[in-house]
Amino acid sequence: MTTYTKGMDLPPTLLAITTFVLHKVGVGSRRTVAARLADETGLSLWQFAVLATLSDFGPAAQREVGGRLGLDPSDMVRLMDELIGAGLAERDRDPADRRRYRVSLTPAGRDALERGQTLVERVERETLTPLTADERERLHELITKIFTG
Description:
By secondary structure, the chain is mostly helical. Helices cover 66% and strands 10% of the residues. The longest helix is centred in the first third of the chain and has 24 residues, at 18-41.
């Protein structure tokens, strides 16, 4: 029994609904990732997401980072203030347009992201333990197809 089903006795009708089961696994996994990120790295899940975005796409305007993640601008301001305050990101003038600011990772931000990635990968392995490596790969392909489709 996984943490996602502990204490639950779901009816077969619900277990037969793929999207319901997918939701339950997703919510349980997200909660576990968020709790472990906070406990082990001090990052919130959204802070981790911002660091990942800056790492993958490079320095960018705050609005651009928020847009990529679908975040409300006010939430993005709060997240950036937290990351900058913690020394994980920095805000500077955009060399291409001195009227704009851009945000980027600091070395400490890269280290925090790497620690977070290691932890997230560990939680994902734990979550997907019942699956073989080939099944995990196929599941990822299928979910990504649905998400991007």
